[in-house]
Amino acid sequence: LAKTTQPISMDSYEGQEVNITCSHNNIATNDYITWYQQFPSQGPRFIIQGYKTKVTNEVASLFIPADRKSSTLSLPRVSLSDTAVYYCLVGERGGYQKVTFGTGTKLQVIP
Amino acid sequence: DTGVSQDPRHKITKRGQNVTFRCDPISEHNRLYWYRQTLGQGPEFLTYFQNEAQLEKSRLLSDRFSAERPKGSFSTLEIQRTEQGDSAMYLCASSLDGRGRLPNSPLHFGNGTRLTVT
Question: Tens of pLDDT along A33-90?
């Protein structure tokens, strides 16, 4: 599966839009991009998945450029409850991921 | 649908003892996964079932680890002769493989079993 690279940590003030970028230079033609959120002492929770261009749901937006070598998770108007670790993965549609999630991006929302 | 449940939430054991964890997936999900997560790291894949068949095992899964999913429903993960290095959060996840007739679902995780080996 394609390896991903994301920032280790980010800080943001409440109410700001947060964009977390993930690099996946070796993404395969059939791979989808999936983002998960994890709070302490909980399992990861699915946020959003996409293949190309833009995907939006009630929680976030996912922007994928034409070459698909990177993607950006956008969280609008973050609140303190968005403080969590965010993981970017690429692979089979539906999120079957048989490798490590990586260390993810630890987002700290500041009041 | 109550989500993926794992039991127990916490387990403290002495080195050398055997432990068994249980995972109850979302009922209609045909895929079940086990992951291990240590502090500050992302989840690492251990093994994966399609229905009752164990289709893949990571090289991280030593001979002391065994997983089963009888009848394609709940699953158990057993660790024999535990070592201090086994201390971690053990996460179970399930998903639906739509087999081309339905969309595949993303992974749904339980809240894990935290194992401490003293």
Answer: 889 999 999 999 999 999 999 999 999 999 999 999 999 999 999 999 999 999 998 8
Tell me which of B45, B47, B49 to substitute to probe the interface with A (most A C-beta atoms closer than 10 Å): B45
A68 and A52 Cβ atoms separated by less than 8 Å: yes
Nearest to A94 among B45, B58, B106 (CB): B106
Q: Can you give the three-state secondary structure of A89-111, one letter per residue? A: EEECCCCCCCCCCCCCEEEEEEC
Cα B93 to chain center, whole Å? 7
Between the alpha carbon of residue A7 and those of residues A72, A85, B42, B69, the distances in Å are 12, 11, 14, 37
Burial (CB count <10 Å: 0-12, 13-18, 19+), residue A111: exposed
Q: Do B48 and A96 touch (CB under 8 A)?
A: yes
The neighbour count for residue B29, using CB atoms within 10 Å, is: 18
- Output the CA–CA distances (angstroms, integers) from residue B50 to A44, B55, B56, B74, in the order listed: 21, 7, 9, 12
Side chain identity at residue B25, one-letter code: P
Residue with structure tokens 């164990």?
Answer: B54
Nearest-Cα distance to chain A for B45, in Å, is 5
